[in-house]
Each structure stands twice: as structure tokens, then as C-alpha cells.
Write a structure and sequence with these properties.
Layout lengths: L42
InterPro entries: Methyltransf_11, SAM-dependent_MTases_sf
Organism: Komarekiella delphini-convector SJRDD-AB1
GO molecular function: S-adenosylmethionine-dependent methyltransferase activity
Length: about 40
Amino acid sequence: MEELGLQNIELIEADAEYVNFNDESFDVILCSTAIAYLNLSH
């Protein structure tokens, strides 16, 4: 991200159904294609 001049950005690869982040950890979450692959039956 620094090559693009972007700062304060951390990319994380994780299981979207089992995230372990504190409340108010994010300003923005971008999810453009992953929703089609989530098990949303529950």
C-alpha cells in the first residue's frame, strides 16, 4: 500500500465467518465479491 502512497492501511486475510476483532476496530470494510461465497443460512 505504501507504493501507492496509502498509509494507515493494513490488509488482513481471514475467515469472514469467524472474525475476532474488537468493536469499533474499523473505519471501512470493503467486501466486493466475498458475500456470494458465505454460508448465510444462519
